[in-house]
Amino acid sequence: MAAEQESDRFKPPVDHRWKTPFGNVCDKSGLKITQINDKTTVWSRPLARTWTLMLLLVTCLLYWSRMAMPICAVTMAKEFGWSKTETGIVLGAFFWGYCFTQVLGGHASDRIGGERVLLLSTSSWAVMTAITPLLANIGLQPLVTMTVTRFLLGVMQGVHYPSLVSICAQRVVEGERGFLMSTLACGCYLGMLLVGGVGSLMMDWFGWGSVFYGAGLLAVCWTCCVRKCLLQGPVFSLYSPWSSSSASESSRINWLYLLREPSVWAMIIAHLCFSSTHYTLISWLPTFFKDMFPHAKDWVFNVMPWFVALPTSLFGGSISDHLIRQGCGTASVRKLMQFLAMGVASVFILLLCKTDSFIYAVACVSLAVGLSTFNNSGVSVNVHDQAPSCAGALFGVMNTCSAFTGLLLVYLSGYMIEITGSWVNVFSILALVNVTGVTVFIALGEAKRVDQSQIISTSC
């Protein structure tokens, strides 16, 4: 009789309730997550749709916050008397901070849950964004305070994408990951459009400070909504059953063995090549259009590529998941998406060197940027396929390296433009880097899980 009572205590919860990543059961919304094993829980479709919408919104706000300083830089430089070099110092400080927390954020997400890390990160950069105009007028040199603020913003936002990768690996089944990551990538493009359109109007009507206030306050509202409606457990608790099992698995990964896998290095190299060329292309496109077409409308080449990127990103995610559900090999689908993102896109990058038509140039750039979004269902998801138990940390390593190589390629491209005065060499190098990366990925890339065999009894 006592044994029966003891077993009743451990019966699973009834169907109308769902267990959160924090170990408690919630029956407020009726949303459920499915327990796949003792380490992984997968969102149900209603909960997945809710989280997808919220993650899309926060990614949009993240890019609004990130791009607020570049949008306001000209106005702020006039107000504070900054030179172009000093303005560059302020803008560049973000990327140095951005490199520091990628691995830490991914590792923390794998251990305690990406939802928690994302919530803490968002609350911190939301407050930092909202108080930026106040810090510019506290009595210290604005150049110093804005450089430090920009650096700290990069530190706080550096964990965002590793957290998303960790969430996707733990909460979404294989046949739906491509669409989720492609949808979340749309938040980047929406954020660029929002800060470029609405942010510019706010700056004209209410001053540059309103751009920062808007992003910060909206992000604070997002944090409050998620904390109240979606996360029911203690945010800072590290001892929930889910996080403990995940931490146990993640901490036993032998990274030396994992990094011996050729498929892992193929993924890393492809990500480095893609990110470096993408950063460089986006950084220098405004200068290219100003040099080649000085009388063209700025908003055309600043807006059109992002309008194209929105539907192509969603299409890429949908078609990749559809192919996998129809029985196509996951590795083949990932390679196809990456070939379109890097190989075919490089053709349109090279065509930029051979046109004197503004419309033709905008079309080439839009197609190159649109095709590049297929990376969201290629290499960006391949990390989930190969190492879901440490996806956040591994993606953090990849993103840190790509940030440094991206900065290097941006600087190298600027030097070449200044010395030669020609864009042909720059675009040719970008195409070469892209082709190199996608060739390695097609030759060595895989989609099989490689972290299971590396889980050993002692931590490396």
UniProtKB/TrEMBL annotation:
Catalysis performed (reactions): ADP(in) = ADP(out); GTP(in) = GTP(out); ATP(in) = ATP(out)
Pfam family, one: MFS_1
Single GO MF descriptor: purine nucleotide uniporter activity
Keyword Transport: yes
Membrane topology: Multi-pass membrane protein
Keyword vocabulary terms for this entry: Cytoplasmic vesicle, Lysosome, Membrane, Transmembrane, Transmembrane helix, Transport
InterPro entries in the record: MFS (IPR011701), MFS_dom (IPR020846), MFS_Na/Anion_cotransporter (IPR050382), MFS_trans_sf (IPR036259), SLC17A9-like (IPR044777), Sugar_transporter_CS (IPR005829)
Alphabetized Gene3D superfamilies for the sequence: MFS general substrate transporter like domains
Listed transmembrane segments: 53-76, 88-105, 117-136, 179-199, 205-226, 264-285, 305-324, 336-352, 358-379, 391-417, 423-444
Localization per Swiss-Prot or TrEMBL: Cytoplasmic vesicle, Secretory vesicle, Chromaffin granule membrane; Lysosome membrane
GO BP field: ATP export; purine-containing compound transmembrane transport
Domain (Major facilitator superfamily (MFS) profile) ranges: 51-449
Predominant place of localization: membrane
A single Gene Ontology CC term: lysosomal membrane
PANTHER family, alphabetized: SOLUTE CARRIER FAMILY 17, VOLTAGE-GATED PURINE NUCLEOTIDE UNIPORTER SLC17A9
Family recorded in the similarity comment: Belongs to the major facilitator superfamily. Sodium/anion cotransporter family.
Task performed by this protein: Voltage-gated ATP nucleotide uniporter that can also transport the purine nucleotides ADP and GTP. Uses the membrane potential as the driving force to control ATP accumulation in lysosomes and secretory vesicles. By controlling ATP storage in lysosomes, regulates ATP-dependent proteins of these organelles. Also indirectly regulates the exocytosis of ATP through its import into lysosomes in astrocytes and secretory vesicles such as adrenal chromaffin granules, mucin granules and synaptic vesicles.
UniProt name for this protein: Voltage-gated purine nucleotide uniporter SLC17A9
Organism: Cyprinus carpio carpio
